[in-house]
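[User] Once you have settled down, look closely at the record that follows, and write a paragraph about the fold.
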Amino acid sequence: MQARNCLLVLALIAVWLTGCANVAMPQALPSTMDSPLIAVSPLPTEIAPQVITLPDDGRGATALEAYPVAKAEAKRWNAQAVLHQIPLKHAMEQNLGIPADARGWFFMFQEPGSPIEYYVKIVDDRLSGKTEAQPILVQPLPYRLLPIDLETLPVQSEDVLRLWLERDGQEYWTAHPDKQLDYRLVHLDGQSHAVWSLFDAALPEQPALLHVDAVTGDIVKDPFPE
């Protein structure tokens, strides 16, 4: 399994609730932050009319806008639950057996010190599904996931899209009409900040389109070990 799709897992016990079938599932990753705000340049006006026509993928809300619903559900599960990653949507669809055209954001929560993972799916601003899971590892992971305070991060999912478009994203957007943009947010122990990653789920074997420091807005390397 590729590092970006999270854990090396032998088995993972999970039940997907709210209209989803019972399935076995893997995954895990994330961050915490209290740094000053930074300026992320706005989307150039000349780009907006021809590029920013996003597909109806259940992400009418940004990750930050969808988060309160996920957080409230996680707190009902466990009052100590803390966000530990925004995993790749296409990877979670595969892990949970959800159809590939499934929509929305996934959020993964954990109680500090507990191996139990709680996944919540939000489509636009509504709860779509939830599941509890515990990974059984063949060997210890080469990294440790830290909690993330999403609400304090200066760089959010919409900023990642802007930064990509300001670089070479416009050409890619035009050349790949079947693209499926997919976001990941993780903070690994030993690394200064959380990192956003942008992928094209239509080409899952392709490297990330962009990795962005969630505090400074700098373009960085893949946070996961090779």
Summary: The chain has one domain: 3-54+61-213. Helices lie at 48-51, 63-77, 89-96, 157-175. Strands lie at 9-17, 82-85, 105-110, 117-123, 126-137, 181-186, 195-200, 210-213.
